[in-house]
Write a structure and sequence with these properties.
Length: 430
């Protein structure tokens, strides 16, 4: 550990929560240098939906490398890129009757968000983007302006502009549809909200605390956007690629975003890869207007294609995710009914769920206890108050049960020693 203490920047975060030197991983497991095994319920913050070192992807990747396939190609046409595009079009877009142009952005989620907001502004001639409370879209300046978390925003060093913040679904209480408020301020010329270029939204706010928007709210949001000629951007970077059960997290709502951002598990193997999907009429880029040296990661194209070919040519994998998600829901509901003195709540949907533990101190103690028992799991939310379940989607039933058992044991131990405070109720249900 000495070299990390000596020269690695203080900006490191996950390493503080899980202070081990890891050197091997497979499926839903990681091992440290002492050979201790850990169940991974972090999964690269949602980057490893298909697990560590997926054998199918590894075989395709090694075969490609041995053949001296193109590794770095800027935005040149390559065989690997073409095969990915064909697979993505044939098995993801066409079966869903979706028609989008695929923009290869820089290989990070935040770069895809930057591209999405930039093209929305160029298309509409408007400057501001509507964003939501507790949203997280990245930490480059444009994406950071759309992010709500003060910890990240305070690090910017400059004013963050170009956005209007609106309340997310449930933010004002369960009985308030906040899309009605959005409609109102957009309809009122004296609201102080200028006509925006777009709305950007996560269907499930991962870093914001596993806040899941209802299907009706998402449908209403699209209606408001259409009414006011505003583009709808869905940030599907963490919730997409199967995390909620469908390939895209918004499929159940039946909405049609104008722009979609994808990254994290898109590459399948954990290789950096991001895209912005843009409806053809809005793809008005001039050549090179948004570019980047590493937007042509051909190794990621290979593994991304392998992921599509193996997991997404029919609905079998999707149904498995939904089945496991239902099991997670039942377990979490049972846990919150037993512990937390009635203050804990289960949140999320599919395999993107969490337990709200009132405050970050309690949630942190739970995840610390879990790590001591061999489970890697993180927290999220404004105060890190949510224990966030983000295991690989390919996890076995046995290990899914084992991981949740560990969390339940950790929760029981913490609750036996800790007085659970009451939740702050800002809006009484009427």
């Amino acid at each position: 550990m000495k070299i990390f203490d000596e020269i690695e920047s203080q900006v490191q975060s996950y390493a503080r929560s899980f202070p081990r030197v890891f050197n091997r991983a497979k499926g839903e497991f990681m091992w440290d240098e002492e050979g201790r095994q850990y169940l991974d319920f972090l999964a690269g913050a949602g980057t490893l939906n298909y697990g560590h070192n997926n054998s199918i992807f590894k075989h395709a990747l090694l075969k490609y490398i041995k053949s001296n396939g193109i590794t770095h190609g800027l935005d040149l046409h390559t065989k690997a890129k073409g095969e990915f595009l064909q697979a993505f079009n044939d098995h993801i877009l066409k079966p869903r009757n979706m028609e989008y142009m695929v923009q290869f952005t820089g290989p990070t989620g935040t770069n895809a968000v930057e591209a999405a907001m930039k093209i929305a502004r160029n298309v509409t001639g408007q400057q501001n983007i509507v964003t939501f409370t507790n949203g997280f879209h990245g930490v480059s300046l444009g994406s950071l302006a759309a992010t709500g978390n003060s910890h990240h925003r305070d690090a910017a060093g400059v004013s963050l502009v170009g956005t209007h913040r609106m309340p997310y679904d449930g933010y004002l209480g369960d009985n308030i549809d906040t899309t009605e408020y959005l409609d109102k301020v957009l309809s009122d010329s004296s609201s102080g909200i200028n006509s925006p270029a777009a709305v950007i939204v996560e269907t499930v706010q991962g870093e914001g605390g596993i806040n899941a928007a209802s299907i009706k709210w998402l449908q209403n949001l699209q209606t408001v956007c259409r009414k006011h000629n505003i583009l709808l951007i869905v940030d599907d970077i963490q919730a997409g690629c199967g995390r909620t059960g469908d390939y895209f997290s918004f499929e159940e709502a039946g909405i049609e975003p104008d722009i979609i951002t994808l990254s994290k598990s898109l590459g399948g193997y954990g290789l950096p890869f991001a895209v912005a999907l843009i409806k053809a009429e809005f793809d008005v880029w001039k050549p090179g207007e948004h570019n980047g040296t590493f937007r042509g990661n051909n190794l990621a194209f290979v593994t991304a294609k392998a992921a599509i070919d193996h997991y997404w040519t029919n609905d079998q994998f999707s149904q498995e995710i939904k089945r496991k998600g239902q099991y997670v829901s039942e377990r979490l509901e049972n846990i919150v009914s037993q512990y937390g003195e009635g203050q804990f709540t289960a949140k999320g949907r599919g395999m993107f769920q969490g337990i709200n533990c009132v405050n970050g101190d309690i949630a942190g103690k739970i995840t610390h206890h879990a790590f001591q028992k061999g489970l890697i799991i993180e927290t999220s939310g404004a105060d890190d108050q949510v224990v966030k379940f983000l295991c690989p989607l390919v996890i076995s039933d046995e290990n899914l049960k084992k991981g949740i058992d560990i969390i339940e044991e950790a929760i029981r131990e913490v609750c036996e020693k800790q007085d659970i405070p009451e939740k702050n109720l800002y809006f009484e249900a009427s």
